[in-house]
């Protein structure tokens, strides 16, 4: 192989941003993206936020077809890569073709964590990771069906909102004592709970699910206290498992995700990984913004332009049940020195402080208000300085 061939396995947001970074650095090389889904890379977040919108619309694509043509990036969708031969630098497609690479990027993403209980094989038990999952779920719904959403994290609550908006009765079941516990403090969770109840949803907190009941099809969910929630569908969202098997089988180091250094390089110097599949400094980020940036960094390094990945301040923007809230940075009070709820803060806002610096913020002020806080956290601005400037 004389020409440079950058091969990217997986066709999500990390892959697109890697391909873009490679093309920006290298106008000549061949770039190929292999994706097992039957579509161009699309905005996966829409699968919960916009479940009942037209998910097959061009608007959902990360880049339109023309962009790939203009940038001479080949996308082979509907093509699964089944093996990597790192010695000969070859990947193998499901239909047996060998594809040679000089640099390989693994952006294989993640699968949804499976519910470990009886009843998950019943018809109408769903979890949404890709377009097919969303299509199948929507096709199976009949007007008036009751839906039990297991998992009260961001994705679960947003999915519940999509169902409520579409007119389906919903119950959210969350094993933890509050909703969105990773992003919200107790008061914000309570405010959210009140709002969700106002929309007629049922919410069961501090309740583990024992099993899903039914014969062929879902008939209900049995909770750990023995009570039964009758429903026709279960939709669960309880975290992700990075797709690492390709890398693992090729002898590339894997733990929770595919291990990468700050250049997104794996234990094989010709192979990189980014996005939900990758583990950096002991963590799989599992976030859209992180996947985008990791893809960009991987692409740069693959072309020989060294640049280190720096984990961004985590940002959750939430827009459902007529609530516009954000949670940025460190919002675990155990990890901070103190916190301030500004007296004039209506809607609710809480600022977390560590070593005098703003470490995190939870606020119902709306997405636009998040920017100054994000900048303050990124730039290490003292709370007093920020407060004086704002007042
Ligand atoms: C419903 C939903 C809602 C979400 N909401 C949010 C949100 O609000 N905010 C947020 O920050 N994040 C959210 N996320 C997470 C976010 O979508 C992911 O972090 C992001 O998509 C990861 O991008 P990626 O490119 O690493 O992987 P993915 O988007 O998972 O793409 C990987 C692709 O690779 C393909 N693939 C895997 N193995 C192979 C193979 N062997 N051969 C060929 N192709 C392969 C997969 O089929 C998939 O198409 C959400 C995720 C879901 C599912």
From TrEMBL:
SUPFAM superfamilies: FAD/NAD(P)-binding domain (SSF51905)
Taxonomy, superkingdom: Bacteria
Source organism phylogeny: Bacteria, Bacillati, Bacillota, Bacilli, Bacillales
Protein's UniProt keywords contain GTP-binding: no
Alphabetized Pfam families for the sequence: Pyr_redox_2, Rubredoxin_C
Protein name: NAD(P)/FAD-dependent oxidoreductase
Transmembrane regions: none
Record domain FAD/NAD(P)-binding: where: 5-295
InterPro entries assigned: FAD-bd_OxRdtase, FAD/NAD-bd_sf, FAD/NAD-binding_dom, FAD/NAD-linked_Rdtase_dimer_sf, Rubredoxin_C
Known cofactor(s): FAD
Gene3D superfamilies: 3.30.390.30, FAD/NAD(P)-binding domain (3.50.50.60)
UniProt domain NADH-rubredoxin oxidoreductase C-terminal: residue ranges: 314-381
Molecular-function GO term, any one: oxidoreductase activity
This protein's UniProt keywords: FAD, Flavoprotein
